[in-house]
TrEMBL record:
This is CCA tRNA nucleotidyltransferase. PROSITE patterns: PROKAR_LIPOPROTEIN (PS51257). PANTHER family: CCA TRNA NUCLEOTIDYLTRANSFERASE 1, MITOCHONDRIAL. It comes from Solibaculum intestinale. The keyword tRNA processing applies.
Amino acid sequence: MRLPDAVLACIKTLQKAGYQGYAVGGCVRDWLCGLTPKDYDVTTSATPAQVTALFPKVVPTGLQYGTVTVLFGEEPVEVTTFRAENGYSDGRRPDQVRLIDNLTEDLARRDLTINAMAFSPAAGLIDPFGGEKDVRRGIIRAVGDPTVRFEEDRLRILRAFRFAATLGYRLHPDTLKAALQKAEGLSSVSAERVTAELMRALTGSFPSRLRPLVESGGLLPWGIRPVSTLFALDFTSSQRAVRLAALCLLTGSDLEELGLRLRLDRRTYKEAAGLLLEVSQPIPTAEYQMRRRLCKAGPTLLSCALRLRGDLSSSDAPAAASAAQMMRRILRRGDPYRLEMLAVTGEDLIQAGLVPGPRIKRTLLELLDAVLENPGCNQKETLLCLVHARKNKESALR
Ligand code: ATP
Ligand code: MG
C-alpha cells in the first residue's frame, strides 16, 4: 500500500518514539478494493497527550473519542488512540470510550471485517477478522456476533447495506439475517445519519443491493414502502434526484412524506419532485407537444425524465427513446420554446403601440403559444401582424 507522505511521516514518527502507528479502516479497505482512498485515518497506541507532545501542530478535534488532528503543513491527518467501547444504551453511541494499547481490540470494535484492517510499511497488513478474504469474495460481514453488533449501533445496519450498494458486495447470510432482525431499530437513528447513508447507498453503482432492507419494511419508518423490485434502479443515472425519484416510482413511496421524514435538502427534493411530475406526463409523440413540454420543463429535466421512464419500463422504452430523439432534433433546429427565444421583445410591442404594463407579458405569452404550435411564425413582422390583428379584433368587439 502506498501511503501519502504526510501519513507515512506520521506513522514513522510514532514508531520512532516507541509507539505503534497504522493506517486503518476505510483507507485500507479502499486500497484492497482497488479504489483511491479519499482520506486516511491513523490509529496508534500513543495517547492524545503523547501524540500532541510528538508533533509541532496538533488540533484536538475529538478528544472524547481519543482523536486529534496532526497538521503536516496544510495536510491534516486524523490520529486516534486505540480504543474500546462499552454499553450502547441508546442503540447508537457507546456510553463509555476506553483508551487501550491493543490494536486487535481496537479493530474488534469496528463494524465490518472489511473496515477492520490496519497497515503499516513495517508490519504489512494486519487483518485478524478475515477482511481481505471478504474483499476478495465480495462479502459484507460484521465483526463478531452480528446481532450484538447491530444491537449496539443500528447505524451499522445501514452502513452494511451502503457498502454492499457502493462496492457491489453481498451481505453474509448471518449478517443479513441479523441486520433484518434488528432493522426496526433504524427508526431511532437520527434522520441526518440515515439520510447520509441512504443517499450514499442510493447513488452507488448497485443500489438494488438495498432490496432485502426495503423488502423487509426496515425503511418504512423513513417513508420507503416494502417491495422487492429494485433491480431497475441500477440502470438509472446515479444522480441523487434521479435515484430518489426512481426509488419512489419503484416502491410506490410518496416523495413528500419521504422528504419530510428524511429531512431532504430542498434542492434534491425539488429536483426529484420535478422529475416525478414530468415522468407522470404522457410521452410526447408530436413536435408541438414536445415544444410545449420543453417550455414547461426545460431540456435537462425533460431528457432526464424520458431516460428514467425508458430505464424503468421496457414497454415505455421505445417511445421514450424516439421522444428523446425528437427533442434533440428540435433543439438542434433551434425551434423557440422560451419567451427569450421569441423574435419580438416587450420593447418591440411598446414601440408597436401597446400600453406598457401587465398586458405586455400576457401578449408575449400568447405569441409564445402560437410559436410553440408553429415555429415558422417566429419572425418579427409576422408576430407584430398577429398582435395588430388581435388588437383590431378586440377594438371591433368593444
Ligand atoms: P467512508 O469514509 O468511505 O464513509 P469509512 O469506513 O472510512 O468509509 P468512516 O465513517 O470514515 O467510514 O469510519 C472510519 C472507520 O471507523 C471505519 O472504517 C470503521 O472501521 C469505523 N467505524 C465507522 N463507523 C462505525 C460504526 N458505526 N461502528 C463501528 N465502527 C465504525
Ligand atoms: Mg473514512
